[in-house]
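In response to reviewer comment 3 from the previous cycle, which asked for concrete evidence that the modeling workflow produces usable outputs, we include below a single protein chain processed end to end. The sequence was submitted unchanged, and the resulting C-alpha cells are shown without manual editing.
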Amino acid sequence: MTESSARLQFWISNAGHYSAHMFMLLYPTVVLALEPRFSLSYGELLSLSLPGFVLFGVAALPAGWLGDRWSEPGMLAIQFIGMGVSAVFTGLAGTPLMIGIGLSLIGLFAAIYHPVGMSMVVRGAVNRGRALGINGICGSLGVASAAFVAGTLTSLAGWRAAFIVPGAVAVAVGLALLAAIRAGRLDTTKEDRKPQPERSQRDMVTAFVVLGVASACTGLIYNGAVVSLPKVFAERMQAFGFGSIGIGSLVSLVYLIAGATQLLGGWAADRFPLKIVYLVSYAVQVPLLALAAGLSNLPMLVTASVMVALQVGAVPVESSLYARYSSSKWRGTAFGLKFVISLGVSGLAVPMVALLHDRAGGFAGLFYVMSGLALMVAAIALLLPGEGAARAPVLAGVPAEGD
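The workflow returned the following C-alpha cells.
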C-alpha cells in the first residue's frame, strides 16, 4: 500500500466514523421537539429508535464479511449514500411508524462503518494506537456534533431539516467517494502496512470470549450515556434555562472534551500493556457513575465530562485489543463480531433508559446500573491473556497517519 493511498483511506475512514455516529444520534435530540407533536411519552418516542440501534450492531458482522470478501472503500460509499437517503426519508416521514422505519434504515447503513472503516485504519497504520485514537476523535466529533446539529436545525428550520440537510450532504460525499474509487485512487490490498506476529489460537479464543462479554457491558454504558444525556441535561440543568440549542451545545461540549482523550488512549495503547490500560479506564468509572446519580447543574456537567472522557478514551484501547488478537485477512469480520456484540447489545440501552426514566421519574437508577456494568468490565479484564513480549516500539522516522 502506497503512503498516499494509505493517507487517503485513513481520512475517508475518519469521515465515515464521524458520519456514522452523527446520524445515529440526531434523533435523541430531535425527539425533544416531537413530544408536543405526537400523543406519545418521551419513552415511547425514544423507543422508535430501538430497531435502528439494534441493526447498527447486528448488521456489522455481514458488513465486515463483505468488506473482507469484496471492497472496503466500496462498502463505505454504500454507507454514505444509504445513510443519506434514509435520513431524507426520515425527515419526510409523517407518522411515528415511518419515522421508526427511517431510523431503522439509518442504523442498517451506519452499521457498515465500524467493521469496514476500522479495519481500513488498522491495515494502513504504522502506529495502530495513534491511528485509532485519531479515528476515535472523529467518531467523538460525530457524537458531539449530533446534538448541536439536530438542536440548531430543529430550532431554525424544524425537526425535518435535522435529517434532510445532513442526508443530502452524505449522499454527495458518497458519490464523490465512488468517483475516487473509479479513478483508482484507493488501494484495495488486504495486507497490513505494518504486520505484527499473530497470537496463538488459544489466546485468540480466550481474548475474544473475554472481550465479547466486556464489549457488551461497555456498549450499554456508552450508549446509555449518549442516549440519556440530552434528557438528563434538560431535567438537571434547569438553573441555566437552556432551550434545544443550549442543551445540544452542552452535550456537544461533553463529547468534544472527551474526544481529545482518545489521543491519550491511543498513546497509552502504543506504549503500555493494553490489559492494564483497559482495566484502569473502567475501574475509575465505577465511583464516577454512582456519584452522577445525585448531581445536577454544574457538578453534573463536570462529572459527566470526566465520565464520558474515560469511556471514550478507552475506545482505541479496546479496538487495539481486538486488532491484536485477530487475523489480518479476516479483521473486518472480527471487528464485525465485536460490534455485533457491543452495538447490538447497546441497543438495549434505549429501552433501559426509557423504562428506568418513565418508571422512576428520573435517571438515578440508570447511573447505578451503569456503575455496576463498569465494575464488571474491570473485573473481567483481569482474565485477558498476558501480552508476553514487550510491545513493538514506535517506528522512528516513519510518517504517521494524519501527519
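The chain has 19 helices and no strands. We consider this sufficient to address the reviewer's concern, and the full set will be provided in the supplementary archive.
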